[in-house]
Amino acid sequence: AHCQYGDFYPLTPYSRDEREWIGWQFHLPETDEGMVQVFMRPESPFETALFKLQGLDDDGEYTIKDYNTGLSLQVKGAELGSAGLTVKRRQKLDSALYYYRRILY
Description:
mainly beta; two-stranded antiparallel ribbon; 1 helix
């Protein structure tokens, strides 16, 4: 919950349209960590979406955890910022929560 005090980045335009996904990111620059929340609305025809994350160090390596699946992976900041984070729908009305943190070697 401490990530919600970080910098706020909307990852989609605000919409109340039941066909649109909506998502945002909170980023703590002082610790280079944050969270992403995505809400998939019931009338959306999409099964996946890409969300380009903000505020990350392109050269940094990040661990990102999907709280729906419990799976974690390591990704470069440049990839999360340019290619984006892929979010997959599991059911008609769904949400996703991710936590990420830069790996310090």
